[in-house]
Amino acid sequence: YINVPDYPSTIAVADVDDDGDKDIVCALVGLYSPNNKVAIMLWNSGTKTWETTTKTVGYGPRVFIGDANTDGKNDIICSNYRDDTISILLWNSGTSDWKSQIVLPLGNGPSNPIIKDFNHDGKNDIAVANWDDHDVSLLYWFEDNTPPSITINNPIQNGNYSAAPTFNVDISDNYYIHKKWYTLNANPTKHFFTSNEPISGWASVPDGTVALNFYANDTAGNEISESVFVNKDSIAPFHNKTESPPDPSL
Predict the structure, then answer these.
(1) What three-state secondary structure class fits 76?
(2) Could you confirm whether domain 7-139 is CATH 3.50.50.60?
(3) CATH number of the structural domain 149-232
(4) Is the pLDDT of residue 155 over 90?
(5) How far apart are CA 183 and CA 160, in angstroms?
(6) Apex 229 CA angle, 227 and 235, nearest 5
(7) Residues 131-152: pLDDT tens digits?
(8) Residue 69 needs a FRET pair 20 to 30 A away by CA distance; which of 159, 199, 206, 215 works?
(9) Residue 203, SS3?
């Protein structure tokens, strides 16, 4: 037996780490709550043992193995039934690991994916039947090396603020935005957001120059950042009012 960390579902068998040995990939779906992992069991021909690792995908995954980007290497593809998305884990020969998942939307209730060159352009594509929609999603492979764009409308450069300003940023991409977040100064804490809102963590930042760093990445893994510098002054101005003493003759 090979132990896996959660309730297993569909499995696929192929060489996923490009070492010539067949490996096992198992979708983990959970029992009482949905899971968003796959267990990857790599065969070690030297020790004759299985080495298990997990990767994050969408919720309710169904796993398939194939060459998604036509580079001659097997990748891991999961149609995520509860998310109505597909997760693609591309093998990176340079790091001997998988890149961060590419997440793309599908129809409702996607089933197992298949890989084939459907439009005869020499590159593999992905097809997924959507059970609840009674249709099929066709995903044509393309090379997206263009990061998203970020335009910071507010706060303004070198603006003075006492209370936390409400930021206003426009973020766009040729295809799909994956995540958006910001950081304050050199603090590594990521504040993820979906809409414009007051800056979180403003109260903990000392007065002075504050760097607001906005980030965005797309589903192809391209990332970009833009920063704006503002001045925080939370101390109310002090006004020393001098009054003349009362006139004793009055």
Answers:
(1) strand
(2) no
(3) 2.60.40
(4) yes
(5) 18
(6) 145
(7) 999 999 999 877 677 899 999 9
(8) 215
(9) helix
